[in-house]
Structure formats: structure tokens, C-alpha cells
Q: What sequence folds into this?
């Protein structure tokens, strides 16, 4: 196809033509909204580095869930900030933990909304790591039982989907076994299969109060330069029984999302993380980019790369912009 016979600009001339040749769509169907749960009532604390995102008690969480439903967003994902933290992350698997109580409250008020729970220990351990710590090591196998118990407690509370984000080896199988043993055959596992050790989680650690007290997460989360390892991680989680696989963060890893989309016939999610959100918000506040256009462009890029589901703090804003 050669100029001047073919002119690529012909189909860009007006919005209706552009709509007709558009290859990728974004709909509220694609969006999952993250929420940060605390104990108490009437609590709504904005996170400094994430304008528009709050730590909230159950009442606020339920209000947000109704809003999501009304905007056509099918699902939320919950993160808990516990009352107290300890070495064994006790509140992570406490039936009266903040996430477990929030799941029940949401399922009472908005039963059709899909409730996903993040399964990890870092918000609940006093050292902020995602597993049991011995000296300066994060122990893999002893952590699996606690993760499985956490997932089970979420399923018992009524969670539709559990999403392990800890990056311990073997956790998907451990969770699947435990759920099946207890009769939760229909509880879905959305595995954070490919999760990189990323600078872009910074604002989340403020939101979830989960910054590690020593060291960092590079002994369990993936090394950013690695691509083949991402394929191995995805394959492992699929073998172990994951129903949905996730890549995280999203924007700096669009190549990985695209490759996993090509390679595996599994539902694919991507997490547009806190730092991705914060950057767009910050540049928008400075007047350096148009934040709404940057939001929509980043979200459509994740769809174009091949993710069907996008976990994003922009979910409500994007759903509003789409309606
Ligand atoms: C828990 C967890 C993290 C995120 C999701 N689950 C933080 C981390 O691994 O340090 C990050 C989400 C975000 O940055 O928005 N392990």
C-alpha cells in the first residue's frame, strides 16, 4: 500500500470515521477498583501521594461499592489495614479482620458486585514483608500455610476471587488445595503471576502502611530486566490452578502483557499501580499533562497490549468519562 494511492489519514478525518476503524475499546466492564479498608466508623483518610484515594471504614467502603455498581464497574479489590501488626500477620486470617468484615458488609449491601481480596501478609506483619521472617530471610514454605488460611478466611466471608500478591513459590497450589478441601471449589484465584520489584509501588505502601522495615522485596518479587522469567512465572501459576493471571505494574511492562496474551489462553489482568496513578495526578496538578487524557490513553494502552481486566485507581473516573 503506497502513497498516494493509500492515504492513511483518510480514515482519521472525523470522529465517526475514527470510531469505525478503532481497534481497541475500553469499557467499565474492564475496570476493577481498589479499596483500602480500616476498622471503625466514619473514617475516610485521603492518601497524600494518591489524591482521591482514601483509607475507609466499612460504611465508606460500602458507599464506594454502590457507586461502582452504579457506574457499571463489575468488581472491587480490597486491601486491609489492620488494628495491630505482628510477626505472624494474625489479622490476615482473622475471621473478624477488616477485610473479612468488609467482604460481608459488601455482600450484604451489593451482592452482585464481584469482590476480590488481595492475599498477602505485608500489610499485617510488623516488619512489612510478605512472608515469615527469620533473621534477614523471608521464608517461603512456612509462609504458604498462612497465605492459604488468609485466602480461606476471605472465601468464608464471601469473597468471589482471592488474589495472592506475595510472590512466594507454590502459593497458588497451596491456596487451591486449601480452598478445595474446605469446599470452596468455585472461589476463583487471580494470581499476581508476574509481579516485578517496582519503584512504582511507593504510594501504595503509604496507603497500606506496608513499607518493609528492613531491606526490600527483591528476594521474592521479579527483577525488572527479565522477560523469559515472566513466562515461566505465568506457566507455573497456570499449572498450579490460577484462573486469572496478572501482570504488575502495567505501563512499564506492556511488552510482558502483550507476550503473555500471545502465549497463554487465560484471562489476563494488569495492575496500573499506585505510582502510575500518582505520576499522572502529579503532572496533572502541575499543569504539565492533561490528566484525563493521560488516564484514558494509559488505560487504552493496557487494553491494546491485551489485558481484559485493569485494576486501577482511575476506575471510577474512567467509568464516568466513558458514560
Ligand atoms: C502487597 C501488594 C502491593 C501492591 C499490591 N499488593 C505492594 C507491594 O508489593 O509492595 C501494590 C499496588 C500498588 O502499588 O498500587 N504485596
A:
Amino acid at each position: 500500500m503506497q502513497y498516494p494511492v493509500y492515504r492513511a489519514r483518510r480514515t482519521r478525518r472525523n470522529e465517526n470515521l475514527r470510531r469505525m476503524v478503532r481497534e481497541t475499546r475500553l469499557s467499565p466492564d474492564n475496570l476493577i477498583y481498589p479499596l483500602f479498608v480500616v476498622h471503625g466508623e466514619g473514617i475516610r483518610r485521603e492518601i497524600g501521594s494518591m489524591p482521591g484515594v482514601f483509607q475507609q471504614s466499612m460504611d465508606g467502603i460500602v458507599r464506594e461499592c454502590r457507586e461502582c455498581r452504579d457506574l457499571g464497574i463489575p468488581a472491587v479489590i480490597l486491601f486491609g489495614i489492620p488494628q495491630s501488626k505482628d510477626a505472624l500477620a494474625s489479622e490476615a486470617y482473622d475471621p473478624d479482620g477488616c477485610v473479612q468484615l468488609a467482604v460481608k458488609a459488601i455482600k450484604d449491601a451489593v451482592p452482585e458486585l464481584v469482590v476480590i481480596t488481595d492475599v498477602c501478609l505485608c500489610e499485617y506483619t510488623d516488619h512489612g514483608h510478605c512472608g515469615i521472617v527469620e533473621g534477614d530471610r523471608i521464608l517461603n514454605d512456612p509462609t504458604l500455610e498462612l497465605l492459604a488460611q488468609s485466602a480461606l478466611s476471605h472465601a468464608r466471608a464471601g469473597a468471589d476471587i482471592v488474589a495472592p500478591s506475595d510472590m512466594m513459590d507454590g502459593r497458588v497450589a497451596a491456596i487451591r488445595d486449601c480452598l478445595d478441601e474446605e469446599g470452596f471449589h468455585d472461589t476463583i484465584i487471580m494470581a499476581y503471576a508476574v509481579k516485578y520489584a517496582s519503584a512504582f509501588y511507593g504510594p501504595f505502601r503509604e496507603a497500606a502502611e506496608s513499607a518493609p522495615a528492613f531491606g526490600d522485596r527483591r528476594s521474592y518479587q521479579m527483577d525488572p530486566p527479565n522477560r523469559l522469567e515472566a513466562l515461566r512465572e505465568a506457566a507455573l501459576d497456570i499449572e498450579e490452578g490460577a484462573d486469572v493471571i496478572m501482570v504488575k505494574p502495567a505501563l512499564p511492562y506492556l511488552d510482558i502483557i502483550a507476550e503473555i496474551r500471545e502465549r497463554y489462553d487465560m484471562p489476563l489482568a494488569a495492575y496500573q499501580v499506585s505510582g502510575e496513578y500518582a505520576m499522572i495526578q502529579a503532572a496533572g496538578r502541575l499543569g504539565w499533562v492533561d490528566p484525563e487524557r493521560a488516564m484514558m490513553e494509559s488505560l487504552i494502552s493496557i487494553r491494546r497490549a491485551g489485558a481484559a481486566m485493569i485494576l486501577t485507581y482511575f476506575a471510577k473516573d474512567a467509568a464516568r468519562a466513558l458514560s
Notes: The chain has a mean pLDDT of 98. Residues 118, 120, 122, 130, 165-166, 201, 204-205, 217, 273-274 surround PBG (CB under 6 Å).
